[in-house]
Write a structure and sequence with these properties.
20% strand, two-stranded antiparallel sheet, 32% helix, Rossmann fold
């Protein structure tokens, strides 16, 4: 996984369900936190995402502030393991959110 501190995965990227990808990563022993985002918002779909290996599940549409807070929470769990991790989350618009485990 290289130096990734965490991953954000959309459930239906390019028409394929990323649940299989997360399941394979977990079977291979990859422990990097995964935040799943999806328009599939039923309780059953959220449970599927979490049981497949996702550490958090955020449904669309969502506020960028909520995404940033969830990323910050996942990075906080890594504090001491990956100190000083900083992530820039760009999005369409004039503002980007920066979150860091160092500020938690």
């Amino acid at each position: 996984m290289g130096d990734a501190a965490m991953m954000i995965m959309d459930r239906l990227v390019f028409g394929e369900d990323s649940l299989k990808t997360v399941e394979v990563l977990r079977k291979e022993g990859v422990k990097v936190p995964v935040l799943m985002i999806s328009a599939l918002s039923s309780i059953d779909e959220r449970i599927r995402g979490l049981t497949a290996g996702g550490d958090d599940y955020l449904t669309k549409p969502f506020a960028m502030a909520e995404l940033a807070a969830r990323v910050q929470a996942l990075l906080r769990r890594l504090d001491g393991i990956v100190p000083g991790v900083s992530v820039l989350i760009p999005y369409e618009g004039s503002q980007a959110w920066e979150v860091s485990s160092a500020v938690v």
